[in-house]
C-alpha cells in the first residue's frame, strides 16, 4: 500500500537536482532524462504539495522561500539514503564512477578506456557523460572531469589541471575546398560557423584573437562539442575545437585547422574528494588521465 504522506520519489529526485543545478536542463542531464520529463515531475510535485517550489528569474530558475526550505530537508534525506545504501552494498563490488563532459568522453576517453580497465581489473568503471556538475560529497561520483577557466582545491575537494589545450577552428577538407582565400581569422566571419549551446565560445575566441564580431553570430547550435565537431567532419561548416577532441581527426586528415592560431580558453580539471585523493585507485586514474594529454600539436603553417 502506498504511503499517502510521501510524494513520488522520482519527483523528489528531479526537484533535488533542479534545486542544486538551478536549471531544468542541467537537472535532466544529471538524471539522464529530457528536460520535459524534469519539468513534468516538478509540476506534479508542486500539484501534490499545493505549494510553488520554483519561479522563473531571468533565463533561469530559483527556489521560492518554501522551495528552499523543502529542498534543504529533501537533500538531507537523500544523503541519508545514499549513506545507508553505501553501507549496505557488498564490499566486494567496487565501482569507480567518473563524470565528464560528453565531448571528452566521446572523443577522447572512450577509445582509451580499456587501458584504465586493465590497470584496475577488480573495478567496474562507470563513465557518465554529462554537462552537470556532480555532488562528490553526496557520493554521486568518485571523480569528475570538467572543462572550466579555473578550479581551486579546497579543504573538501582536490583539483588537478590535466591540460589546457589549444582551441582552433576546424573544418573538413572538402568544405574548405569550396571557400577560397580563407587566410586570416577575420576571414572566418564570412563562413558558416557551427556552435555548441550558444555563440559564447566563438564570441570569446574571436575576442581573444582581436577580432570584432558582428552583433549576432549566426549558425546552427548543436549543444555538445562532439556534435559540433561531427558536423564539421560532415562538411557543414567551421567548428571550434580543442586538440584533446580532434587530435586523431587532424592526424587522419578528416579535419584540418582552418587558420593558424595559438589561443586557449579553458582547462580540463580532475576533481575528487580531498579525503580520497591519495587512494591507490585515484592515483591510477590521475596517471591514466595525464597520459591522455595531447602531444604538442603545432598550429597550421
Automatic annotation (TrEMBL):
GO molecular function: DNA-binding transcription factor activity; sequence-specific DNA binding
InterPro entries listed in its UniProt record: LysR-type_TF_proteobact-type, LysR_HTH_N, LysR_subst-bd, WH-like_DNA-bd_sf, WH_DNA-bd_sf
Gene3D superfamilies: Periplasmic binding protein-like II, Winged helix-like DNA-binding domain superfamily/Winged helix DNA-binding domain
Domain HTH lysR-type residue range list: 7-64
PROSITE patterns with a match to the protein in the record: HTH_LYSR (PS50931)
Keyword DNA-binding: yes
GO biological process: DNA-templated transcription
Keywords: DNA-binding, Transcription, Transcription regulation
Homology family: Belongs to the LysR transcriptional regulatory family.
Protein name stated in the entry: LysR family transcriptional regulator
Native source species: Microvirga brassicacearum
